[in-house]
């Protein structure tokens, strides 16, 4: 097995140190909790801002190709303290681990959140891949979607992230361009078993996860259903 270069190891150690600085230790436990009332307070502030600014939304500018669930982060500088007494303690901007975003910005702007610790794990793996020099493809699970070969980047076992919906351990996948995503198949399978909605093949089903949750499925690929009504990656 090819070893990760010394430069790569140093990069990984540096990122680990920097990641620890993102969330102050003395505030970490309380800032990991996705309080519903904090999300509600931000929602009310966003609506008041929109009413006072001719329909404009307090969001940061992102590239047009940014994935939809990360595309419209709330710009707290525009709503605090005029519309919001203080930035929520669980928000990244105030030392927390959650990114506040808006969904359905055209018709019904709705405040949601996602856990930035997912981004940290993905970033660390990308650093290892860069040090290795090529993506660690393993078996193919869909068109242009693969499992990762963690041994090739110096890891002993598979890396998982915590699901915000079920608390299960979700695996990661990689596409042909080396981009890494969270695989929400397990959560979507459970949701499909309980929903009474009519789902058509070719329809993106990720919205099922956001209907009764404050979380969005960040860092995800689109999913649809197969002939068995089970979730599959929707890739071209």
The helix/strand order is HHEEHEEEEEHHEE
What would you call the shape?
A: globular
Number of strands: 9
Q: Residue ranges: pLDDT <50 for 5 or more in a row?
A: 9-27
Query: Considering DSSP H and I runs of 4 or more, what fraction of the residues is helical?
Result: 25-40%
Provide the number of structural domains: 2
Radius of gyration using CA atoms only? 19 Å
| Helical run tally | 5
Describe the structure.
- The protein has 236 residues and is of the alpha+beta class.
- It folds into two domains: 33-115, no CATH class; 120-233, no CATH class.
- Helix content is 27%, strand content 17%.
- The chain contains five helices and nine strands.
- It has helices at residues 6-22, 36-52, 117-132, 185-194, 207-210, and strands at 98-103, 110-115, 137-142, 145-148, 160-162, 169-175, 180-182, 223-225, 231-233.
- Strands 3, 4, 5, 6 and 7 form a five-stranded antiparallel β-sheet that branches. The protein has a two-stranded antiparallel sheet with strand order 1-2. A two-stranded antiparallel sheet has the order 8-9.
- A hairpin with a 4-residue loop joins strand 6 and strand 7.
- 29% of the residues are buried.
- Mean pLDDT is 88; it is low at 9-27.
